[in-house]
Design brief:
Chain A is mainly α. Chain A has helices at 2-34, 49-56, 61-93, 100-108, 115-126, 131-138, 158-183, 186-193, 198-227, 230-235, 243-252, 257-290. In chain A, helix 2 (49-56) crosses helix 3 (61-93). Chain B has two domains: 1-47, no CATH class; 75-286, Orthogonal Bundle (MetI-like fold). Chain B is 75% helix and 1% strand. Chain B is built from 13 helices and two strands. Chain C has two domains: 33-169 and 319-390, Periplasmic binding protein-like II (D-Maltodextrin-Binding Protein, domain 2, 3-Layer(aba) Sandwich); 170-317 and 398-420, 3-Layer(aba) Sandwich (D-Maltodextrin-Binding Protein, domain 2). Chain C is built from 16 helices and eleven strands. In chain C, strand 1 (49-55), helix 3 and strand 2 (80-86) form a beta-alpha-beta unit. In chain C, helix 8 (213-226) crosses helix 16 (406-420) and helix 9 runs parallel beside helix 16 (406-420). Chain C starts with a helix and ends with a helix. The chains are: A mainly alpha, B mainly alpha, C alpha/beta. At the A-B interface, helix 1, helix 3, helix 4, helix 5 and helix 6 of A face helix 1, helix 4, helix 5, helix 6 and helix 7 of B.
Chain lengths: 291, 287, 422
C-alpha cells in the first residue's frame, strides 16, 4: 500500500540522510576536487592532472608505487596471517579446560583497545631498546640495542603488521569461536565415525563452516588496514610511506594545489578497496559453492 | 588427553594469551617507571611523575583533600579531553540509536523495493576507509560552519557508527514479533507506552550492544576528530597521538591507560549482552 | 639668601634635563594604534578576558602560563586569562582567515593573542590579518633589542611592529658525560664527520621535514659551515647561492650514511625519538632547542642525569618567538597588557628557569635592564639554569640568526629527494 511504502521511507530517511550527504556526498565532492575543480580558487576546468602527478610525475611516482606496494603487502600479510593464527587460537580455546573463561576474556582484551594504543604498545615491546630487546640483553643474547633485529619503524612495515596482528587475531578469533560454538561438534563426530583424521576433519568439516564468516570479516580487516592512518603514521618510516599517510600529507600541505593530489590519492585508495572487495566477494562466492 | 599433551596444551594457551596482553602490560610498567633506560629490564626507579604531569595526581606535598580538589577543578588538558571524549561518545551513542532505530525496524521487519540497495548504502562506510571521504567532508564542514564544534564532530562520527547500529538492531528486529505492539495498542496504550513497555524490553539486549559499539567507535576516532574538530575539539586520542609522536614514554603510557580504561570497562559491563551477537562484533574492526 | 637661591637654581638646572628626558621617553613612545595613551589601554583592559590561542602540547608550558601570567594579570590588571590550547598554531591562522572571509569586522573576532613565528606570521601579515604596528609602542618594549636582526627579522622577514617577542631558542647538542669526555666532543661539522666515521652507528640526526624543524636547522647549519659562514645567507632568499652549495651538502650527508645509526636507512622523525635513542644508548648525541640544554629533559626523566649540553664553535641557529594580535581581536587592550607583561624582566627571568616548566630563553636583552629588583631576578635565574645547560658564553659565541623561510621547505624537499630516497 502506498502509505506503507511512505512509512518505510520516513523510517529510513534520517539514516540515509547521514549516509548519503556525509558519506557519498563527501566521496563525490572529493572526486570532483581530485579532478581539479575548485570554484573557490577560481578553477572550473576538469582534468586528470592530479592523478598523473601522483602516479607518474618524476617527483612522486617512486613514492607512490613503492607506497602502493608496501600498503598492499602490509594489508594482505596482516589479514592472511591474522586469519590463520586466529583459527589456530580458536581451535585451542574451544576445548574445555580449567581457566577457560579467564583465558577467553584475556584473549578478547585487545578488542576494545584502539589501534592507536596497540601501535604504541608495539613500540614499547619490539623497538630496539624495547622490552623484548631488554629481555634479550638480560639473557646475554645481545650486547647492544643495534644487535636486536629492526622490527619497529623498519622499511618493510613489519611493526605495522605486528600491530594489526595484535588487534585482528582476537577479532577473527571471536568470530570463528562464535561460529564453532553455534555449530557444535556433531558434524565432526560424524566425520570421525566415518574415519576422517584430524587434518581431514579440519579441511572438510571445520573450514567450510567458518569460511563465510572468515571471508566477510577479512574484507573488513583488509579494507581497514588498507586505509588507516594512525598506525602507519606512528610505526612507519618517511620512505616508503603507506598511501593513507601520503594522502593526508598532501592534504595538510598549506599549498592549496596539493589538495587535489591528496584527494586523488584518497580516491585511488577508495577505488582499490572497492575493486578488491568486489573481486574478493566473487571469488569467495565461488569458493564457498565449491567446498 | 595424555599428560604431555595436556602440558603442551596449557603452555600454548598461556603463551597465546600472554603474548596478546603483553603490549598492555608494557603500559603499566612505563606509566610508573622513571628513567627506565636500556638495558634495565625491571625499572630501577619508580615514580608517579607521569600522572602528576597529566594532572591526575597532585604533586608531592599537595596530596591533601584540598590538593585533590584543586587539581580536579583546575581542569588539566587530560581532564578536559576526558570530558570532551565522554560527551562526544554519549552524544554519538544517543543520536545514532535515535536515528538508527526506525531504519533498523524498517530493514528488519519489512520487505520493500530497493531494499538491497539501501542495505548496500548503509554498509558502504564499513568498507571504504575514513581517509577516502574525510578529505571532501573537511572542506564542506568548514563552509557550513560545523567544523570545530562538538555537535559537528558528533554528526561526522555517525558515518562510521551508523552501519553497526543499524546492522545490530535490524538483526534484533528480524526476530521480533510486532503483533504484541498491535495488541497493546488495541488495549488502549499510546505509542510511547507501547514503546516503553513492549518494544524496549524485547530489543533491550540488542540495544545495549548497538550503544556499546556506537560509543567505542566514537571513542577511538582520531582522524575524523582531527580533521573536523579543527583543533578546537580535543579528545583523548588527539592528545595521545600528539604525545606518542613527540613526548615522553611515561606520559604516553599513562595517557594510554586512561584511554583504554573506559573502553575495557564498557566491554566488561556489557559482556553478557555480547555473546551471540556476531553481526555487531564487526564493529571491533573499526576501533 | 642669594646663595640659597643660587643653589636652588643650580639644583633645578641639574634636575631639568632629567625631568625633560623622563618626559621625553614617555612621549617618545606613541600609544598603540586606536588608543590615546598607555593609561587608556590599562583602563580599557580592566575587566576584559584575553583569549590567548597557543600551541598546547606541553603541560608544563601550559602550567607556566597559567601561574606566571594568569595570576598577575588578574591581581594587578583585573584581566582574566583564557588560554586556548591548539594542536598546531596554523589552526588559529585558519580560524582568523575564515573569519575574515566571512566578513567578521574589527572587535568581532574570537582570538585576542596568538603565539606565533615564521611562516604563520608571514601568512597573516601578507593577508593583512594583524592589528598593528604596536610592538614598539608598549612600555616594556624598551627592554627588547630591536636593533638585533634576530629580533627584528622573523625568518629573515621584517617584524615591523606586528608581533612582540616572547622568548628565544637556540640549537645545541647534548652528550652524556658518563659516556664521553668534553675534550672528545666535535666542535664543528668537519669534526663531527671525523667523529661519526670513527664511531660507526653512534650518530644520527632528525629527518628534516614538517614537524621536525630541528632536523632542518641541523642541515641548514651545514650550509653555513661548508659555504664559509652564515653572513652571506642573511637577507632575501637567494636561489643561486642555494644551488651552489646544496650539492656539496647532499654529498656530505650521503657520505655519512654508512656510518650513521641503521646505516642511514631511516632517521628519527621527531625530537622525542632522538631523545629516546640517546637515552637508551643507541646514539651518543641528542639535539635540543632549549637554552637550558639537557636540564629540562633530565627533570622529566627522559635522558640520563649525567647529560650535558654543548655547542659547536659557531653556526648554532637561534631565533625568537612572538605574540601577535589579530585584526578582529575583541579585547585588544587586554592583549596589549599581556604582551607587555610577558616582557617584564622578572617574568622573563622566570621563564628561562627549567624548574618553572617553560625553559626557553630570554625575549628581552638583559643588558638593558637597570632596575635593581629585576637585575637580582636575572642573576638568580642564572644560578638556576640547571647543570645540563651549555655554558652561556658558548651559546652567545656560537649564535647566528635564522634565514629566509623559503630555504626551509626547499631543504626539506631536497633532503628527502637527494639523501633519504637516494
Amino acid at each position: 500500500m502506498w502509505w506503507e511504502r511512505w512509512r518505510i521511507a520516513v523510517m529510513l530517511a534520517p539514516t540515509l540522510l547521514i549516509i548519503v550527504v556525509l558519506f557519498f556526498g563527501s566521496l563525490g565532492y572529493g572526486f570532483i576536487q581530485s579532478l581539479g575543480y575548485q570554484p573557490n580558487i577560481g578553477n572550473y576546468s576538469i582534468s586528470l592532472d592530479a592523478y598523473s602527478t601522483v602516479m607518474f610525475s618524476e617527483r612522486y611516482s617512486e613514492q607512490f608505487w613503492r607506497g602502493l606496494r608496501l600498503t598492499f603487502f602490509v594489508s594482505l600479510a596482516s589479514t592472511a596471517i591474522a586469519a590463520g593464527l586466529a583459527i589456530a587460537c580458536a581451535l585451542l580455546l574451544r576445548q574445555t579446560f580449567v581457566g577457560k573463561r579467564v583465558a577467553t576474556f584475556l584473549f578478547q582484551l585487545n578488542l576494545p583497545v584502539p589501534h592507536l594504543v596497540i601501535a604504541i604498545g608495539i613500540i614499547f615491546l619490539f623497538s630496539n631498546s624495547g622490552l623484548l630487546a631488554r629481555a634479550a640483553a638480560q639473557m646475554g643474547w645481545i650486547s647492544a640495542p643495534s644487535d636486536f633485529p629492526v622490527l619497529v619503524r623498519d622499511t618493510e612495515g613489519i611493526s605495522i603488521i605486528l600491530a594489526y596482528l595484535w588487534k585482528e587475531i582476537p577479532f577473527f578469533g571471536i568470530i570463528v569461536l562464535a561460529i564453532l560454538q553455534s555449530v557444535g561438534e556433531d558434524y565432526e563426530d560424524l566425520a570421525r565415525s566415518l574415519g576422517a583424521n584430524g587434518w581431514q576433519r579440519f579441511r572438510y568439516v571445520i573450514l567450510p563452516l567458518i569460511m563465510p564468516g572468515l571471508l566477510s570479516s577479512s574484507i573488513i580487516v583488509f579494507a581497514f588496514t588498507f586505509g588507516t592512518y594512525e598506525v602507519p603514521k606512528l610505526l612507519g618510516v618517511r620512505f616508503p610511506e603507506m598511501l593513507p599517510v601520503m594522502a593526508l600529507e598532501f592534504f595538510l600541505n598549506p599549498d592549496l594545489n596539493a589538495r587535489a593530489e591528496g584527494m586523488a590519492l584518497s580516491m585511488i585508495i577508495a577505488v582499490i578497496v572497492l575493486a578488491l572487495v568486489v573481486v574478493y566477494m566473487w571469488i569467495s562466492d565461488r569458493a564457498i559453492r565449491q567446498t | 588427553m595424555s599428560r604431555v599433551k595436556r602440558i603442551l596444551f596449557y603452555a600454548a594457551v598461556v603463551g597465546v594469551v600472554l603474548a596478546l596482553v603483553l603490549p598492555i602490560i608494557t603500559f603499566f610498567i612505563n606509566a610508573f617507571a622513571f628513567r627506565w633506560f636500556y638495558p634495565q629490564f625491571v625499572p630501577n626507579e619508580w615514580s608517579l611523575q607521569a600522572w602528576e604531569r597529566i594532572g591526575l595526581i597532585p604533586r608531592e606535598g599537595q596530596r591533601t583533600l584540598e590538593g585533590w580538589w584543586r587539581l580536579l577543578s583546575s581542569g588539566s588538558d587530560v581532564i578536559n579531553a576526558l570530558g570532551t571524549s565522554l560527551a562526544l561518545g554519549g552524544l554519538v551513542t544517543v543520536l545514532s540509536v535515535i536515528i538508527g532505530l526506525p531504519a533498523a525496524r524498517a530493514l528488519g521487519l519489512y520487505r520493500f523495493r530497493f531494499k538491497r540497495l539501501v542495505e548496500f548504502m548503509i554498509l558502504a562506510p564499513t568498507i571504504v576507509p575514513v581517509i577516502a571521504f574525510v578529505l571532501g567532508l573537511n572542506i564542506n564542514f568548514i563552509r557550513w560552519g560545523f567544523s570545530g564544534t562538538l555537535l559537528g564532530v558528533a554528526v561526522v562520527h555517525l558515518v562510521p557508527v551508523m552501519p553497526y547500529v543499524v546492522l545490530t538492531l535490524s538483526g534484533v528486529f528480524a526476530n521480533y514479533n510486532p503483533e504484541f505492539e498491535e495488541q497493546a495498542r488495541t488495549l488502549g496504550a499510546g505509542p510511547l507506552r507501547t514503546f516503553w513497555y513492549i518494544t524496549l524490553p524485547s530489543i533491550f539486549p540488542g540495544l545495549v550492544v548497538a550503544a556499546l559499539f556506537a560509543f567505542l567507535v566514537s571513542w577511538s576516532q582520531y582522524l575524523l576528530t582531527f580533521l573536523i574538530g579543527a583543533g578546537r575539539v580535543i579528545t583523548i586520542p588527539m592528545l595521545l597521538f600528539a604525545q606518542a609522536s613527540g613526548g615522553n614514554n611515561a606520559v604516553t603510557a599513562a595517557m594510554s591507560l586512561i584511554f583504554i580504561a573506559p573502553a575495557v570497562l564498557t566491554l566488561l559491563l556489557s559482556a553478557r549482552y555480547l555473546s551471540g551477537e556476531a553481526s555487531a562484533v564487526g564493529g571491533f574492526g573499526r576501533i | 639668601m642669594a646663595r640659597k637661591w643660587m643653589l636652588l637654581v643650580l639644583v633645578a638646572l641639574l634636575l631639568l634635563p632629567m625631568a625633560v628626558s623622563a618626559q621625553e621617553t614617555m612621549d617618545d613612545m606613541a600609544p598603540p594604534p586606536g588608543f590615546a595613551s598607555w593609561d587608556a589601554v590599562l583602563e580599557e583592559a580592566r575587566g576584559q578576558t584575553v583569549n590567548w590561542y597557543m600551541w598546547g602540547g606541553s603541560d608544563s608550558i601550559n602550567e607556566f602560563v597559567d601561574t606566571f601570567y594568569g595570576e598577575p594579570l588578574l591581581e594587578e590588571y583585573g584581566i582574566t586569562l583564557n588560554r586556548v590550547p591548539l594542536a598546531d598554531t596554523v589552526d588559529a591562522v585558519n580560524q582568523v582567515l575564515s573569519e575574515s572571509e566571512a566578513g567578521v569586522g574589527p572587535g568581532e573576532g574570537t582570538i585576542d593573542l596568538i603565539w606565533i613565528n615564521g611562516e604563520n606570521f608571514f601568512t597573516m601579515r601578507q593577508a593583512e590579518l594583524l592589528y598593528g604596528p604596536w610592538a614598539q609602542n608598549i612600555p616594556n618594549s624598551m627592554y627588547v633589542d630591536w636593533e638585533n636582526p634576530a629580533v627584528a627579522l622573523d625568518f629573515g622577514r621584517p617584524v615591523d611592529g606586528y608581533e612582540s617577542p616572547w622568548s628565544s631558542a637556540q640549537f645545541n647538542f647534548i652528550y652524556d658525560t658518563a659516556r664521553m669526555s668534553a675534550e672528545d666532543l666535535p666542535r664543528s661539522y668537519a669534526e663531527l664527520t671525523e667523529w661519526a666515521i670513527a664511531n660507526p652507528g653512534r650518530f644520527t640526526y632528525i629527518a628534516p621535514g614538517p614537524g621536525a624543524f630541528l632536523g632542518t636547522r641541523f642541515v641548514k647549519q651545514i650550509f653555513f659551515e661548508v659555504s664559509g659562514g652564515q653572513e652571506q645567507w642573511v637577507g632575501e632568499f637567494n636561489q643561486e647561492l642555494y644551488d651552489q652549495w646544496a650539492p656539496v651538502v647532499w654529498e656530505l650527508l650521503n657520505a655519512w650514511e654508512p656510518y650513521l645509526w641503521r646505516q642511514g636507512e631511516t632517521y628519527p622523525a621527531s625530537e622525542a625519538e632522538l631523545h629516546e635513542l640517546f637515552a637508551n644508548g643507541e646514539v651518543d648525541f641528542d639535539f635540543t632547542n632549549l637554552p637550558s640544554g639537557a636540564s629540562t629533559f633530565i627533570e622529566t626523566g627522559q635522558i640520563p642525569p649525567t647529560s650535558q649540553a654543548f655547542t659547536f664553535e659557531t653556526n648554532m641557529i637561534g631565533d625568537f618567538n612572538y605574540v601577535a594580535i589579530p585584526y578582529n581581536a575583541p579585547n585588544v587592550a587586554a592583549a596589549l597588557v599581556l604582551a607587555n607583561l610577558m616582557l617584564r624582566p622578572d617574568l622573563q627571568a622566570a621563564q628561562v628557569q627549567p624548574a618553572n616548566g617553560f625553559g626557553l630563553g630570554y625575549g628581552i636583552d638583559v643588558s638593558t635592564v637597570s632596575e635593581e629588583e629585576f637585575i637580582a631576578a636575572i642573576e638568580e635565574a642564572a644560578l638556576n639554569m640547571g647543570a645540563g645547560a651549555a655554558p652561556a658564553a658558548d651559546l652567545a659565541a656560537s649564535l647566528v640568526s635564522d634565514i629566509a623561510a623559503e630555504y626551509q621547505a626547499l631543504i626539506e624537499a631536497d633532503w628527502e629527494a637527494n639523501v633519504l630516497r637516494r
